[in-house]
Amino acid sequence: MMGRGRAAGRRRGPLGAFALAAVMALLSGCESPVEFYRPGDGGPDEPVVGLGGAAPYVRPEPGRPRAADPPGPVPVEPAGGQVYAATGPGMIAPGARDMPARLYVADGRGIEVVDPRTLRLTGRFGAGTAASRVVPSWDMRRLWAVDPVHDVLVPMGAVTGRRGRPVPAADPAALYFTPDGRAALVVAGRPRRLEVRDPRTMRPRASVPLPCAAADGDFTLGGGSLVMTCTSAGTLLRVDVAGRRVAGTVRLPAGARPGDVRLSPDGGTFLVADAAKGGVWAVDARTFAPSGFVRTAPGARALAISRDARRLFVAGGGILAAMEFRDRRVTARWRLPGGGDAVPGGVSSDGRALWLADPGGLVYAVSTRTGRVLRHARLRGRPAGLCVHPQPGRYSLGGTGLYR
Fold first, then answer.
1. Is 207 exposed, middle or buried (0-12, 13-18, 19+ CB in 10 A)?
2. Using alpha carbons only, how large is the chain's radius of gyration in Å?
C-alpha cells in the first residue's frame, strides 16, 4: 500500500531549515511548532475532540503488573464473539494506557513525532531511518520502523523515545505479529518471502517463499493464517503460519490491483481495496473465493475500521468513502484535501477522527461523522506512512491500525 524502495527513498530532498529548527528545539528541551492551519470555513465542526488518541480510562490499580514482555500465550478468539469487540472507544490495553498520544509520520528520511492535540513537533528520529512504515509491537510498548532503504528494522521506545540498535532485514516491506504474540512476520521483497522471527529480538526462525510481491495483510478469525495482497499480480495469498507454507491463492478479475485488506467484524469475509476497479472486493474467509464487489470511488486503496466496527473507511483518489459492514452500502463520500492518495494512520481512541497522511506533506484528521477536516498540519517532508499510537485493543497485529 505504501510506497517504498531504494530509489524512492534517495530521491527525497533534505528537510533543511525545518529539520535544523526541530533538532535545536529538541536539544533545548522545548517543543517546536509545526506549521498548521484549519480550513478556511472557521475551524472544526466540533470542539477539540477525536484528536488526542486516549479517551477517559480507569488507571491501573497500584501495584498491578504491566503487560508481560516477552508475551505469553493469549486467547486469539474474538472477544465477546466479535472480532473488534476489544477495540472500542477508550479500550486502551493496560500496558499502553500511560503512553502519550502521538502521531509517528514516516517521510522516507526520518520519523516526525507529533502531538495530535497541539500539532506540535515533539521529536524526530533522523539519520539512518528512511522508514516507510512505523509499526507497534504486539504489546504496544515498542515501535518498529520499517526501513527498506537501509535494509533494517529499527526499534523505538514508545515511552522513552529512545532509538535501539537496527536489526538487519533484507528489503522489508511490512511487519506483522501473530495474535498469540509468539512470532513476528516480516514481509521481504527481495527475495520474495515471509520471514518468521522472534517478536522481541527479531532473530530469524524460519522463512516462507512467496509466489509474488506481497505487503498488506490481515489475519483470519482464529489467527492461524495471514492473508496478504499482491498488487502487481492481482492476487491474494493465504499463508499458514504454523505450517509455514502458502496454503491458498485467489486471483481477482483481470485488471484488479488489490491493496489494503481487512477482516469483517464477524470474521467471515475479507474486504480488499482495489484502486484499479475503484472499490472493495469481498472474499469469503472460509472458501477463499470472491463473493462480491462494492464500488466506492476511483483509486480506492487503503482501509480503516470505525471504532464501533460498523463502518469501513475506504481512502484513495482524493476521496474517503464510508461503507456499512451490515449491508455493504456506501453511505458517504467525502473529498479529502490535496486530492492525492492519502494513507490512513488510524482512528482516534474516542472514534471521532480518522488520521491520514498525504504524500504532498499533509497530515490531518477528519471527522468520522461528517468528513470535515478537524486538524490539518503541513510537514516539510513527504509522508509515506502514518501511525497513531496508542490505539484501543488487547494487542497489535502490526501493519497499519491492526488491533484485536
1. middle
2. 19
36, amino acid identity: F
Strand extents, DSSP E, 180-310: 184-189, 192-197, 204-209, 217-219, 225-230, 235-240, 245-251, 258-263, 269-274, 279-284, 290-295, 302-305
Residues 386 and 357: beta-carbon distance below 8 Å:
yes
- In our burial notation (b when 16+ CB lie closer than 10 A, e otherwise), range 355-368 reads bbbbbebbbbbbbb
Q: Cβ(140)–Cβ(93) under 8 Å?
A: yes
- Tens of pLDDT, residue by residue over 373-393, are 999 888 877 888 999 999 999
Q: Which residues contact 356 (CB under 8 A, 6 or more apart)?
A: 315, 320, 336, 342, 343, 344, 345, 363, 364, 365, 366, 386
Of 2, 13, 1, which Cα lies nearest the Cα of 384? 2
- 223: left (phi > 0), else alpha (psi -120 to 50), else beta? left
Residue with cell 487503503: 302
By residue count, the chain amounts to 404
Is 17's pLDDT higher than 80? no
- Per-residue model confidence as pLDDT tens digits over 341-350: 888 999 999 9
Instruction: Round to whole Å and give the CA distance between 275 and 273.
Output: 7
Instruction: Name the one residue in this structure whose C-alpha cell is 488487547.
Output: 394
- Cα–Cα distances in angstroms (integers) from residue 105 to residues 116, 367, 396, in the given order: 11, 20, 18
Q: What is the rounded CA–CA span in Å between residue 191 and residue 212? A: 10
CA distances (Å), 175 to each of 189, 199, 241, in order?
12, 10, 14
3-state helix, strand, coil in the chain (%, to 5): 5, 40, 55
Q: In the block, which residue shows the cell 509515506?
A: 384
Mean pLDDT computed over 165-177: 95
d(CA 126, CA 303): 28
Strand arrangement, sheet containing 172-177 = 204-209, 192-197, 184-189, 172-177, 396-398, 402-403
Which residues, at least 6 apart from 11, have a Cβ–Cβ distance to it below 8 Å?
none
DSSP 95: G
